[in-house]
């Protein structure tokens, strides 16, 4: 049963469980030290308070009845702290009840966590901005284009009087530099001196198996071949209308390189002028060749 008694310092009425009789505490209103009296003493103190200061008659009885702050009340719970105050009243920090089922965290820790969260977010934003700045935003680069690509151009030759003409029926062969064909391609039908009407389907199929392509220069001096993927290629152009002189032998290094693909580089080129070079093809390219006398 609760005991009601006035605070001896501020005269506020307090209500405490009878199990707290004789226990010291603090008034939640004025924080003055108090001792919970027994029931008889509490009754006597309340009578003295009433006699000394009669309660004020409210101007509006309904307002007094429903006003939750008309009297400062402290409730007791045997399982919690000694004093509980009615909501809305400010009390000293050392008299505020603590809930033992909750974790008390200092306010500074909460502030620190907020600062760390903001710093972490800013750091990740900065890293993302820097990384994104190096990401490609424009069209694909040459390294990212997969193909196929077209290699085209003109093949012409210069006569002794320095006039030029289309090198009709000249041969253009494009071969992957790193190819290792299991079977060599037969050169018959592929030479510039061979009749263009000959059936060379088997030879062309063998070239395709290693990624190679073959073309003849048309009457306008133009050619065009289609390679499937980017990479390094050997480009061989054999003239139809110019011959090598005694000072223009077939180089052994060129012959050895071509013999990886063909059964006979000597028979393929014969006595005609030629150009052999390695080209990196990563886009459509124009490759023009002009055969000059003695060059």
Task: Note down, in words, how this protein is organized.
Strand 7 (149-158) and strand 8 (164-166) form a beta hairpin. The chain has two domains: 2-95, no CATH class; 144-291, Sandwich (Immunoglobulin-like), CATH 2.60.40. The strands form five sheets. Strands 7, 8, 11, 14 and 15 form a five-stranded mixed beta sheet that branches. It has a four-stranded antiparallel beta sheet with strand order 10-9-12-13, covered by helices on one side. A two-stranded antiparallel ribbon has the order 1-2. The protein has helices at 39-52, 61-66, 107-134, 201-209, 252-258, 265-269, and strands at 2-6, 13-17, 24-26, 33-35, 74-75, 84-85, 149-158, 164-166, 171-176, 213-216, 222-227, 231-243, 272-281, 285-286, 289-291. The chain has six helices and 15 strands. It has 295 residues and is of the alpha+beta class. It is 23% helix and 26% strand. The N and C termini lie far apart (123 Å). The longest helix has 28 residues, at 107-134.
Compact summary:
With 295 residues, the protein is of the alpha+beta class. It has helices spanning 39-52, 61-66, 107-134, 201-209, 252-258, 265-269, and strands spanning 2-6, 13-17, 24-26, 33-35, 74-75, 84-85, 149-158, 164-166, 171-176, 213-216, 222-227, 231-243, 272-281, 285-286, 289-291.
């Amino acid at each position: 049963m609760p005991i009601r008694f006035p605070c001896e310092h501020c005269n506020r009425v307090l209500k405490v469980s009878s199990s707290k009789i004789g226990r010291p505490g603090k008034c939640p209103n004025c924080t003055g030290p108090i001792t919970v009296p027994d029931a008889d003493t509490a009754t006597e103190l309340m009578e003295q308070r009433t006699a000394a200061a009669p309660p004020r008659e409210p101007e509006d009885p309904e307002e007094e009845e429903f006003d939750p702050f008309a009297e400062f009340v402290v409730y007791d719970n045997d399982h919690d702290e000694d004093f509980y105050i009615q909501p809305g009243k400010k009390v000293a920090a050392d008299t505020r009840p603590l809930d033992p089922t909750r974790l008390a965290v200092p306010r500074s820790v909460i502030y620190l966590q907020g600062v760390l969260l903001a710093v972490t977010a800013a750091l990740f934003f900065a890293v993302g901005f820097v990384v994104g700045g190096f990401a490609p935003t424009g069209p694909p680069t040459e390294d990212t284009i997969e193909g196929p690509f077209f290699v085209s151009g003109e093949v012409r030759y210069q006569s002794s009087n320095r006039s030029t003409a289309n090198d009709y029926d000249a041969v253009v062969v494009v071969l992957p530099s790193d190819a290792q064909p299991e079977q060599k391609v037969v050169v018959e039908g592929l030479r510039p001196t061979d009749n263009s009407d000959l059936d060379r389907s088997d030879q062309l199929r063998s070239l395709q198996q290693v990624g190679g392509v073959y073309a003849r220069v048309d009457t306008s001096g133009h050619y065009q071949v289609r390679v499937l993927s980017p990479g390094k290629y050997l480009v061989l152009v054999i003239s139809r209308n110019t011959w090598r002189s005694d000072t223009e032998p077939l180089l052994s290094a060129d012959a050895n390189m071509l013999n990886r693909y063909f059964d006979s580089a000597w028979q393929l080129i014969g006595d005609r002028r030629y150009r052999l070079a390695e080209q990196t093809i990563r886009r459509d390219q124009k490759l023009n060749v002009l055969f000059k006398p003695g060059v």
